[in-house]
């Protein structure tokens, strides 16, 4: 059994420990061995906390032996992206200059997960600043997609997605400001939950500096796992602590039931962005699964989608920095990132479109349009990106990168409006996994998770896998 513990999900591991069929120490040891075996091939985990995690596991086993109450995640390992504070660990954000920037305390969701019994076993890789859709940096180097070394694992939570996909971790904690949970999930064949704005607290002052307004509004922490029920389990233990976050909203995790049949709008047309055949096929399969399960599935278009993408870009451009003046990027980032930003900056500038008089006012107008649309069709089935994982190095080619903002319109619209979304795999095409996202009204993660579980039950989980 010990050699197979790493292949189990968070819910299954918690259940085994609860029933006394595995100890916390056995679970942690199994995952540390898996990391030793696999991580040299994928470079997803940057730091392991072996001694600390084994000590925490021993303490949990002793508490259980004494008959003390333990949390619902007792003994479940978790990995955490390097831009989320973990007490005593460096919040590097992929930057060499921050490699010793150790956090004095856990970020609120990490503290909650620890209180529920989860045990941190390592930190995971990310691109510098979390501002690239491929995971590489000067501090730790590139993460390898376990499905195909020639293709990106995604970003910016690419280390988390690769770690979970290969069984090194059953539960990863990352964040999503422009698809940074959902895009790596698509690339690596795992599931991810981007919660609603205000659900999961972010602290205003981190060890790496204050959080810019754009990231307060557009970004949120969330879980990555191999199974949707593991997302639900983790999410339920990430939402309670406000942590000084003024956006935090203590809303019930489950909303009122909707009258059957629940409507689902399939969005295949993204205001002109071309959808690759394999991505379209994934949408078709997911739509058929939901229809067979009793959902009322119909095709439609998202309102003001292109303008939502432009307003997102304007807010991120104008309010995504901590300081008025930034050091030259070439002094703090890798040559790869410097090249990426040289190529992407003019594309990013064009993607902002016509400057709004007040982007937040226009955001509110778009939000009202979406609210009216989703009051009739509460779930939206859509691509994460309209194309699959790209070949490594493609995002350094200006011709290839030119239409990137168009291919990500639906994903960044979700960030702009603070909506929840679940990424769920639906199969493979060639050597690569394919996934879709299920979007719901704000604070209705439960509806998204319900539908994603239906898709997963039919399509099946794609991971864990050994690197190929």
Automatic annotation (TrEMBL):
Residue span(s) of domain Amidase: 26-449
Gene Ontology molecular-function annotations: catalytic activity
A Pfam family assignment: Amidase
InterPro entries: Amidase, Amidase_CS, Amidase_dom, AS_sf
Coiled coil residues, start to end: none
PANTHER family hit by this protein: GLUTAMYL-TRNA(GLN) AMIDOTRANSFERASE SUBUNIT A, MITOCHONDRIAL, TRANSAMIDASE
Family, similarity comment: Belongs to the amidase family.
NCBIfam families reported in the protein's UniProt record: PRK07487.1 (NF005687)
Protein name: Amidase
Native organism: Planotetraspora mira
